[in-house]
């Protein structure tokens, strides 16, 4: 039995069923493209906001400081003046320190720009990291009392030897000190010091990093 040949009526019916589908895509191309863009934004915007919020409390973008000059950061100029390791039996330690630990002292100077607030500088945090990613922050219960000249431990204000308040002012170097308790035997040249401004939109997730 031979197959029945397709008539012109059948051809017209087949074409009429395909044409609306192609036409629908053409008519709705703009709407579909807009939907795709809105969908992408719906995913990207929450991610961007979450990343910004994370960086407020966990700065992750390093700004390398000049070892021999001032470096601009967070509305001020910063300089690492001295880095020193203090072993457990050093007479400057006026309290107990574990024999397997040592104290690292970092002395900085900062010159605020005009208009920079003392409270903004005082929001700074000090940290030290090593090549393995270990991290230590300033102070803590393990830090013994230290003798010697008294320096502020914050970056914008503090008290001197006479317990008189001192403030960082524009155009004038302000000295402060960060002290850390680290495992004994650390090589200063293998460490990096950080000045961080947590919860600060101004620095955009950046921190200042010094080679020791």
Explain what the structure shows.
This protein is of the alpha+beta class and 212 residues long. Helix content is 25%, strand content 32%. Strands 1-11-10-5-6 form a 5-stranded mixed sheet, covered by helices on one side. The termini are far apart.
**What is the percent of helical residues?**
25-40%
Class computed from helices, strands and strand pairing? alpha+beta
- Intertermini distance: 95 Å
Mean pLDDT, to the nearest integer, reads 82
- Shape type: elongated
Low-pLDDT residue spans: none
Please report which band the strand proportion falls in: under 5%, 5-15%, 15-25%, 25-35%, 35-45% or over 45%. Answer: 25-35%
Total number of helices:
3
* Spatial strand order of the main sheet: 1-11-10-5-6
User: Biggest sheet, in brief?
Assistant: 5 strands, mixed
Which key features would you list for this structure?
212 residues; alpha+beta; five-stranded mixed sheet; four-stranded antiparallel sheet; 3 helices; 11 strands
Structure summary:
By secondary structure, the chain is of the alpha+beta class. Helix content is 25%, strand content 32%.
Produce the secondary structure layout.
Layout: H1 8-27, H2 29-57, E1 61-64, E2 71-73, E3 76-86, E4 101-112, H3 118-121, E5 124-129, E6 135-137, E7 157-159, E8 165-167, E9 174-183, E10 192-197, E11 206-211
Parallel strand pairs: 1-11
Antiparallel strand pairs: 2-3, 3-4, 4-9, 5-6, 5-10, 7-8, 10-11
